[in-house]
Amino acid sequence: MSIRTRLAASFATLFAVAMLAGCETGPEVKSEAAAPQTVAATPKQEVKKPAGPVMPKGVTVISTEALKALVDKGSEAGNYLLFDSRPAGRFNAATIPTSQHLTDAEMEKLDKEGKVASRLGADKNKLAIFWCGGPT
């Protein structure tokens, strides 16, 4: 007899025994549910948005809408530089149009070499926008 046949026979036997034995019911048990309770409603509380990180002097946060308006104009007409500081893999997968890739490590290297100004360009009136994937 194969193992499959033995298992099927064992299962059939157990099933038959269970069916023939039947289910015996015990005495009926009554449960007493607790009376429903009324809970007083609490007034709605205003949830405040957590404050963002404290920015260094001269640094501000740009809204999504303002950034979109600039990107729609283009970097020349909008007079801005947009830097994506995420890792190369994420930058290459997708980025905001007109973004240049500049990681934090690359920025630190340029700073040590005194070459930050060359990357940012000569026009000091251009808005420099840096963005990333959020706090880590």
Automatic annotation (TrEMBL):
<dbReference type="InterPro" id="IPR001763">
    <property type="entry name" value="Rhodanese-like_dom"/>
</dbReference>
<dbReference type="Pfam" id="PF00581">
    <property type="entry name" value="Rhodanese"/>
</dbReference>
<feature type="domain" description="Rhodanese">
    <location>
        <begin position="71"/>
        <end position="134"/>
    </location>
</feature>
<feature type="region of interest" description="Disordered">
    <location>
        <begin position="31"/>
        <end position="54"/>
    </location>
</feature>
<dbReference type="InterPro" id="IPR036873">
    <property type="entry name" value="Rhodanese-like_dom_sf"/>
</dbReference>
<keyword id="KW-0732">Signal</keyword>
<protein>
    <recommendedName>
        <fullName>Rhodanese domain-containing protein</fullName>
    </recommendedName>
</protein>
<feature type="signal peptide">
    <location>
        <begin position="1"/>
        <end position="21"/>
    </location>
</feature>
